[in-house]
């Protein structure tokens, strides 16, 4: 019996499942980074990946958890800016600020921001993907209470094993941004005609 055993196994060991989900989540985040068109492995469309339906349903909570943690971290960083100083590091003014009460308040206010970054890096296993979450993705969803991604099922199955495919993408692109192109769908082979025996 499978009492209290939630989630899909995906035909993998638990460590392999975690690695798969981390890689899928990181891949989705990294589609938002700045890339050259000629770069090897450049994403076809920003903010979208194509995978199987089961994998998309499993990775979606991880992606949304990372964005929620990043939003809380950004809010903590904004609160910490009230107590920060604009003085040059190791200057007399900076040293005075460092010894005073303002520094203690800044350190206490910025601790949740640092913790949030560390948690996202731990969940994703990729520092570059975590940086993209904090710099580009989380600021976009500051006013949104949840539901940052959507799963769109594709009509054609995967070639080879006929696995059902889906697009996992971010919702609510910025106004004025170009629409991402529709995913390319491979043409299915027409069914073979039976030869008449005669």
SSE blueprint:
Elements: H1 14-30, E1 48-52, H2 53-80, H3 92-99, H4 101-124, H5 127-140, E2 149-153, E3 165-170
Antiparallel strand pairs: 1-3, 2-3
Helix pairs in contact: 1-2, 1-5, 2-4, 2-5, 4-5
Task: List the main descriptive attributes of the protein structure presented here.
8% strand, mainly alpha, 50s Ribosomal Protein L17, Chain: A, 5 helices, 46% helix, 198 residues
Structure explained in plain terms:
A 3-stranded antiparallel beta sheet has the order 1-3-2, covered by helices on one side. It has 198 residues and is mainly α. Helix 1 (14-30) packs across helix 2 (53-80) and helix 1 packs across helix 5. The termini are far apart. The chain has helices spanning 14-30, 53-80, 92-99, 101-124, 127-140, and strands at 48-52, 149-153, 165-170.
